[in-house]
User: Fold this.
Amino acid sequence: MAVEPRRWRLFIDNRWLDAGDGETTPVINPTNGTVLGRVAMATAADVDKAVAAAHRAFTGWSDRSGVERGTLLDKIADQLQSRREEIVANQVANSGKPLVEAGIDADDAIATYRYYADEACRLDARQDTDVQLIEGFAGRTRFEPLGVAGLIVPWNFPLVTSGWKVAAALAAGCTVVLKASEFTPSNELLLGEAALAASLPAGVVNIVTGGPDCGRAICEHPLVAKISFTGSNRVGQEVMATAARRSVPTTLELGGKSAIVAFGDSDPYEAAQWICDGIFYNAGQVCSATSRLLVERSFEAALRPVLLEKTEAIRLGDPADPSTGMGPMTTRAQYNKVISYFDIARQEGLSPSCGGHVVDRNGGLFIAPTVYWDVPPTSRLWREEIFGPVLCVRSFSDEDDAVRQANESDYGLAATIVGQDQQRNARLARRLRAGHIWINSAPVVFPQSSWGGFKASGIGRELGPWGMAGYMGTKHITEARSALTV
Ligand code: NAD
Assistant:
């Protein structure tokens, strides 16, 4: 399905608007450098309009029952489902994702809206539940939405990362201003079309695109009552500092440098598959990418040739071609950042076991899947988030050594365990300091699970009931049953 060149506007109060000062920026197809269209760059005044619309809509939206909100969330899911082919084509053209991955994104977003449609319905039954107090008093608990939610997302999983926030916030009864990345607006703004077609009331969902100033304007806005941010640690710290000035509750989903631990009782082919899934999916532009491989010393000789052969066999190319295994970097800045780590590796005296270079193809932002073996723990490649298709490998002697090395990181987003001993796997799952653990699995995430990091990887949780709880305040009502005085 061809993607037509177009102009993406801001979605505010159920209307499509140009930025106040008319500024736009080009949207690039990273596979070949062609311009897909132009997107509006929202000003602080545009953000103000969006927040004001969300604020006006809040009372009406939050007064609806969970079932009513859930019904509309289901309609958004229906809209996305009916446009799945277009969503996939956008994800391929705008992000450079291979077809299979673009399809997984579409299905993930749809499943998230469906899940929170059900959670919204379930919320009604949880309202005003009795709490046992001492005799003479009755108590009950309610969960109430915080108000206008400012949602800021990066470019690596458009529609998905935003869906995790928007669907949970709407289910809770918040209205939202979503700030999408200016690099990947196509599917984020398609959500506005889906909201319109689903007959969402004006102002419930507002979508602005822009750069750092647009994000800042959301964080600083006095009517924003909740902030949920996904992105880098540097910006996350700024967001938190701004939010702290008004004591606004803030959820942060930040970076990672996740470990994958491979034990010697694994099948080397199976292990290599999970290792490649963990680092080369979305060309490594995944916050939870398992970019640090820890391999049991006795298993290195068996695993190494299989893993390198599998990595070298990954087909780079047009992501619209079903035989393509890995697409380009999504943005030029990210492409340059990965290249800078190849320079750092050289300066540190490291040589890649495979990859370690760009691939020149039709002006696309392609980087060869890369493996560095025996990386010292002091190396910047071992410690810092690269956010690209670069795997660093070290060995470990025993279980304690594996846990120590895996946990020796500022981050704690995710980890994968590969091995046949179930009791050992269960022990490791407890000992690893990370928010999500996979055992003998590709790094799959379901709407019912929780998502979020330990340590510098973030604060709070998305998905599941925990995601929705982040948009609600708990209210307790105490009623005296007799004329008892205290
Ligand atoms: P980024 O922090 O540069 O940008 C994220 C978003 O914040 C963008 O929309 C950007 O325009 C906006 N922004 C930039 N400066 C801002 C400011 N001062 N105030 C408010 N908003 C501002 O991150 P990125 O490069 O777009 O994304 C990559 C990072 O995101 C990586 O570190 C990755 O690990 C992280 N990430 C984390 C998760 C997670 O769930 N933990 C998921 C995806 C990506």
Notes: Residues 152-156, 161, 179, 181, 211-212, 215-216, 219, 230-232, 235, 238-239, 253-256, 287, 385, 387, 413, 453, 458 surround nicotinamide-adenine-dinucleotide (CB under 6 Å). The first strand starts at residue 6 and ends at 8. The longest helix spans residues 99-126.
